[in-house]
# Entry
Amino acid sequence: MSNLSMIQLLVVLFGIFLLLAPLVQQEKLCEVNLVLKQPVYHQSDSSKRLPMRIGMLYLNQSPTSAGGGDSIRIPSGQIINLSSQPKSGSGLGKQRFLKDKVRINLSDTVKVQQKYLNGNNANQARLLLELGKNMLRTPYTQRSDQDRALETFHEAERISEKIGSRELKEESLSMLGVVHLIHGNWERGKSYFMQVVEARRQAGDKAGEINALLSLATTVICDSCGENIEALKHALRLSEEIEDQSLEAVIRIQLGYKYLSSGNTEQAEEEALKALSLQEKVGFAEICRTYKIFSAQSVYNSPMDYAYLSSAYYLLSDIGQNNGDLNQKLFYILKVVDDVEKNGLHDELDYTFFRLGNAYWELGQYDRSLEYHKQSAAISRQKGEFISIGLIRRMTAALVDQGKAGDALLIMQDAVDRKLLCTHEDKMYIAQSLGACYNALKKYSLAEKYYLESIAWTKQSPLFFKYLAYRGIAQFYVTNAQYSKAEPYLTFLENASTQQLLPNYLIEVHLMRFKVDSARQNYPAAIRHYQLYKALQDSIYNETKNRQIAQLSIEYETAKKEQDIQIKEKNIELLKEQNKLQQNHRNALFLGTGLLLVILALGFNRYRLKQRANRQLQAQQQILQLQQKQIGQKNKHLAELITEKDAVLVQKDNLLKDKDQLLTEKGWLLREIHHRVKNNFHVVASLLEIQSSYLKNKVALSAIKDSQRRIHSMSIIHQKLYQSDSLSIIHMPEYIYELVDYLRDSYAVRKEIGFSLEIENIALDHAVAITLGLILNEAITNALKYAFTKTENGNIAISLGYAPDSQILLMVQDNGSGLPRNFRKKLGASMGMELLKGLTDDIGGNLSIENNHGTCIKITFYNNGGSTRNMSIS
# Structure
């Protein structure tokens, strides 16, 4: 080895030493800092409290999970052991309560029931309350026992009353109210909560009144939320009296959700904007603090169930989805993310990412949805909190969409095996998710079993969850071509109002109905549903909205990266501050590094420098060529897309022009048809008029005249149709006035007989109007012929209007001599009466003829027709 090489080696070793020396020292400093920051515990106190604190942590981390019980058992066992030691008796009651609460969460309720069967202290009342709650929320494979829960809560109330514990008594009353609310008995449930409200009012505790009212209004999801809204309005007035703006904002958010559930979107949006104004005044962090205080006081629901109250933007987001604007839904969720990060409330990101994942899930972007749901689950685990069934359900759906049905099934089976405590709605989600997994795995009999279970779990659930279950099983049957089984569920979904069924779900209903009708060769209905499907799809998922959603996502990701850069910059500044303590080492390091670089630079051969430069130049040229090639391909593809787009737009314009022309031609053709029909009626009437001139028989002549009047009553319809803008609707007041005027002139009774008309503003289809005109013609003709043979000052009253039950009532009444006594026997002998019966049957109506100071003919019918009804005569 040459002297130059030896010198270079020594210099390299010296440089490495200079690099490592300050790093070793920095590691030692970090170890010292860790030691200094660690708290010191004494065995006599903290070591005995620690197991109880750990047990409480595990117990509280999952208020709806029985799966964490094994983790609780070890610390709670240590509690009892420590309690038997000297100087630890002060916490014995709490420790025993904790251990028995663990037994309840482990479903080991027998020991607890035996132990406190005849007990009369506060811990026994608390454990009875916990026992009752676990009877309401049970694992998926078990059904809730509301009757036993009621007995348990009544016993807890008795003990609370006996020991004089106001807090436990009010919690017992609240839980009794919860059971009745879950069972659907609102009045009974409300009565228990109002006892708590009254007790807090008498005590002058308005905050307690508000808490009880909020619990009453938010315990269960409602379909018609009138009573819930009244309770929330009461709570709102109290919050305004105590001038708590953050609490007022939380109540307004909840009030907005109840309006939204009731279908009152405008009122919901008004409350959301008021809540947002208050949120901007007091700050997002204050709203979060307030909702957490309320959720911690909830007697039944878990704190996670109330996370939607942490921001008014969540309500605005759901209003957007309810209006079919998923772009707005995503926009407001991103606003929440921004608020959370600006306020440094990173613990709130688990629910925020859950809602963000839901937004992408509704948009069909399952990959991005799964990414945010995983982040939500990770944050929840870090906080020691449970993962909701809703999150698990959406993650499994995303995995199934990615073709990972096996992984999705493992997740759901794990949730079932861990015996998570569930509501009926949670159990519906689990059953539906298991059905989706087995369907993707082509185990169709198992899939159908679980889908039917999901329907069964919604018997006591609000309509929203019924629609979700029916939508899932309908998708399963349609996908597997079992259209007859899908039929009842699709019919149920079609009858849902737009407020109850979200627009993006209604799209799927129309698409499924299109497939079913197509398979049954019912092509008109299939085309109609396909048109509705396309119209909804275009309104929700059009290209402009897709671009806006993509832009929102890009802006959010960009802002997130910028924020990460700012955090890194702050970390760099902190590191710089720490490095000031090692300034001397840095100086030595810089000096040694500079010397090393100078010596190494002198040792490099010019040939190697040139070789490296050449390699770099060649690599750069290859990269440039590759980039140019990629740019060329992208430009070519873009040009093709633009050409295709232009062709599609031209085709669309041509189709629209053809459509407008066809519609115009159709209108003219219909007018021409009605005109010709009217003329043909006039020709027939003229022919009858000519024929009547040759007749001498009065009966035949009367029949000819009656036929002429019937023809004229129909020709008026067609005359009005071709003269009006609408080609199928008849405005009944004008038509009836004209028909009556014609009959008065025809019988020449304008002075002798009076007519009183009372016609509401009703428009009918031309087919129904023709039938109704013939009925009027017969009824008026019969009255003019037979009613006034013995009566002077005759009058005929005609009325048409709406009757109860959305029916239409036609009544023709005269003050003539009435029907003859033997009219029932002759019923059917008259052509006029036969016509009245037959025409009434044609419109699915009920004919009633009354004989009371004249004749009164009543006909009730539905505007859309219906089945044939009965005829009555009195």
The first strand starts at residue 729 and ends at 731. DSSP finds 34 helices and eight strands in the chain. Residues 20-92, 102-108, 543-549, 865-869 have pLDDT under 50 and may be disordered. The beta strands are 729-731, 753-759, 763-765, 794-803, 807-814, 846-851, 855-861, 871-873.
